[in-house]
TrEMBL record:
This is LysR family transcriptional regulator ArgP. It comes from Micromonospora tarensis. Transmembrane segments: none annotated. NCBIfam families: argP (TIGR03298), PRK03635.1 (NF002964), PRK13348.1 (NF009888). Residues 4-60 form the HTH lysR-type domain. InterPro entries: ArgP, LTTR, LysR_HTH_N, LysR_subst-bd, WH-like_DNA-bd_sf, WH_DNA-bd_sf. Belongs to the LysR transcriptional regulatory family. Keywords: Activator, DNA-binding, Transcription, Transcription regulation.
Amino acid sequence: MEGLDSAQLRTLAAVVAEGSFDAAARLLHLTPSAVSQRIKALEEAVGQVLVRRVRPCVATEAGRPLLRLAGQLALLEREALADARGPLAGGGLVRVAVVVNADSLATWFPAALARLPRRAGLSFDLRQDDQDHTAELLRDGSVTAAVTAQREAVQGCRVQRLGAMRYRALSTPEFAADHFAAGFTAEAVADAPLLVFDRKDRVQHRFIRAVTGRSLDPPVHYAPSVPGLSELIRLGLGWSMVPEQIAEADLSAGRCVDLAPGRHLDVPLYWQHWRLASKVLTALTAAVRAVTTETLR
């Protein structure tokens, strides 16, 4: 088989990133027919179906390594052009896709991006997922880097420990008096309404088991927004585990109390990124490590 066509690889990346052939065509300034022809030609060259034609389009198992390759080539090409032409010469945007868990995105991660030197032609495509699931997007080639709870390196990636995000169990004083007058007991937890980010979020249940020694199934409200979940706690709708960076303000102001003083849950976080000699990844990694040294346990 001859070498892979770079235009076809870029088209594959666009189809998966944008979710459809039509959207990829708009991004690449092509007709949908031209996009379809490029994907078909790439699939014929590889001898495998590379894209599942669903909404949104996703890469197949065979397409994932090529999707990762397309992203790596785009990143290295943009850096090479910047070095050859100078940072102000243009050459088109390259997006660096990073997946981050919601609590990191709401606390320390923006500060890491702010520490990066301003670089012409670079934009970030931030995705959000639970820390126990972010590595999946690295595996399928959708993202360049991830904040994850997975300590084992994804194939083709480097991994570094960042530290641990500490969580504390919070509610309003009134909620605590109504539901936890006898303390954080299994009986109280079983009946007290619990606020959970989404169905992937198991932080609360891990804490319940660690403190009570039992796997319990309390009534749950789902609130897929970090600010929204915090506000629901303040309004007395339930209790939840809150990152200490967010919890401190509510505790200091007396809006909330710690339901289990002296107990907390530490969630180790890791930084995984493509194993690639890239200035962008080197700078991003340095910024992430600098901020987490200051903010995580």
